[in-house]
Amino acid sequence: MSDLLIVDAHAHLWDRQHGMVDGRPVVPVGNGKSDFGGAIRQMMPPDMDDNRCSVERLMANMDYAGVSGCVITQEYIDGNQDDYLLECKSRFGKRMKICSLYEENADWQHEGFDGVKICAGRLKDTNLLHHQDVFAGAADLNMFVSIDLAEGDVQVDAMQQLIEQFPTLRIAIGHFGMVTIDGWKRQIELAKNKNVYIESGGLTWLFNKEGYPYPGAIDAIIEAANICGMDKLMWGSDYPRTMVALTYEMSTRFILESKHLSSEDKKAFLGENAIKFYGFDNLTRPEHIDNML
Predict the structure, then answer these.
(1) CB proximity list for 14: less than 8 A, separation 6 or greater
(2) Which end of the chain is more exposed for a tag (fewer CB within 10 A), N or C?
(3) pLDDT class for 293, splitting at 50, 70, 90?
(4) Contact of 176 with 200, CB cutoff 8 Å
(5) Helix runs in 45-200, H state only
């Protein structure tokens, strides 16, 4: 597929991790490990020994894997990275869309940002209707909303109300609706609305017990496409956390090698849908470099 353009709809960057989980700090301890609210976890590959998830490393991985563009989302467990993402965009803006982080009871940045990230499942007040101002602001500014809903369908009804209230607002629902949790299909059904899409950040994490080539993940993509259409689904890596179990290139390869998806499906899922949704212009394929194997 020489005309294939790949866009990563869900990746993370941070200069210094300084987040919170359940009211407890997330602190880097070196060699890719972090103290995650009192438990040590391998947060990223061990060769990221300074615990920085830098834009230079991501771009090197994107070039090697043939990924043209990316969307940088955020998470409370990493801490607010707004300033660093603006710096990254100033250098790689053609290939990158960035989200500011919405935090309760605080102003959120919009200048220089393409979208706003809402970690809905981690909100203290999980009633999305109490946060409608951020949806209204994004709609007024023609920004998109990247949102990770709480597991299952507990926030789906409120989300549907907000979709109807702001029908022109572009909304990307993350983590593939938390596909391994009961109620995930109701999250996917939200993409039946015109400007709502689903991105698959974390899909290999959710099917991690299967291991490569993640047959359950392929089945989930097909099932979701039957619900809302393949033209509403977008690939995302959830870099760098998923990279503790596979390489960045492998996170696209299991899609490209699948015999259960057509060439048209692969093009749509891996890039075409994201280019349309996020408004990427003039992306080009990274130059292929043969490796030593």
Answers:
(1) 52, 53, 78, 79, 81, 84
(2) C
(3) confident
(4) yes
(5) 55-65, 82-92, 132-140, 156-165, 184-189
Please give the backbone phi and psi of residue 86, each rounded to the nearest 5 degrees, phi first.
-60, -40
Q: Write out the two tokens for 23.
A: 């009211």
Cα–Cα nearest to 267, from 258, 31, 73, 15: 258
Q: What is the largest CA-CA distance in the chain?
A: 55
What are the tens digits of pLDDT across the range 7-40? 999 999 999 999 999 899 999 999 999 999 999 9
Q: Which helix (H) or strand (E) holds 256?
A: helix 250-256
Comparing C-alpha atoms, which of 16, 236, 230 is closest to residue 26? 16
CA angle (23, 174, 211) in 5-degree steps: 95
Q: What length does the chain have?
A: 293
The single-letter code of the amino acid at 176 is F
Task: Tell me if 204 sits within 8 A of 246, measured CB to CB.
Answer: yes
Q: Are 26 and 18 in contact (CB under 8 A)?
A: yes
CA–CA separation, 173 vs 200, rounded Å?
9
CB atoms within 10 A of CB 154: 15
Q: What are phi and psi of 101, to 5 degrees?
A: -100, 125
Q: Are 278 and 144 in contact (CB under 8 A)?
A: yes
Tokens of 262: 């057509």
HEC states along 20-57? EECCEEEEEEECCEEEECCEEEECCCCCCCCCCECHHH
Query: Which two structure tokens, joined as six digits, stand for 128?
Result: 């999305």
Those residues with Cβ within 8 angstroms of residue 13's Cβ, 6 or more apart along the chain or in another chain? 53, 54, 55, 58, 72, 81, 84, 85, 88
Q: What pLDDT is attached to residue 105?
A: 87
The tokens describing 6, both together, are 């790949």
Tell me the whole-structure pTM to 2 decimals: 0.97
- The token duo for 115 is 């979208």
Distance CA 225, CA 231 (A): 8
